[in-house]
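Human: If only I could read backbone structure tokens as easily as an amino acid sequence. Take your time, and here it is.
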Amino acid sequence: MHNFLPIAYFQSQFVQFSEAKVSIATHALHYGTGAFGGLRGIPDPQNPDQILLFRLDRHCKRLSDSAHFLHFDLPASKIQEIITEFVKKNQPTTSFYIRPFVYTSDLGIAPRLHKIDKDFFVYGLELGDYLSPEGVSCRISSWYRQEDRSLPLRGKISGAYITSSLAKTEAVESGFDEAILMNSQGKVCEASGMNVFLVRRGQLITPGYEQDILEGITRDSILTLARDLGIPVVERPVDKTELFVAEEVFLSGTAAKITPVRKIENYELSTHRPVTEKLREKLTAITENRDSAYQDWIHCIPLV
């Protein structure tokens, strides 16, 4: 049961969430011709009269880029303006998640992106831990991540998430919490909605952009933090068997934050996770606006 925030932005105005509805003939519903973003917000622990959003500018830029794939000109500045007003109108009092979405809003039946109406909406819901902070079990999915030559993987295109959905359900129904997908070359790609990191011989390793991964904003943040903390970072192709012998494995994403992996297939991983914990503590401090060195990553929205 989700607790949705009461106000949504829909068809260029703020309305009650319960009133924001689309037709069953909506083009994007049939063809996956939408793109979404997702960002977290929390009440400032030091000042309850303001809300903290993590890397709002990057999230807005990525959604604007995703809209570009749909032939929709939606400036990042416009997205940021609407999200800021959305937060002020909802006055959230607990940790929450914002879902902005661009889509083909026309009622036509031909699959296309030209000569078709597009629109943009925003809604939100209360959200605590998406995955267990104690660690999750993962299986290697039988489904493979799409290739960039087939889908614009630099965007969060809604139609692409059928693969994530299949992989997630396959994992859960076979007794695991999460799935790890390979790419078409048989290399480790990502989880159903998270990037993958591992630690081996003191190095923090993650698949590079050429491995058909999503350009994760949390992923980018972790790489920056690791370098700043003096942790060696390597972006390269990763083989499946490396996950089984890694010293640490964790997933990262806006919803997942930094979630350790405790088991992959039938291989138990160590519960000693010094790099994971160091990065998680640092990222938590930043998102709570307790680290002055990264204040430019935090967007403060006053509620009064």
Summary: Residues 76-90 form the longest helix (15 residues). The longest strand covers residues 96-104. Residues 252 and 258 are 5 Å apart (CA to CA). The chain has seven helices and 17 strands.
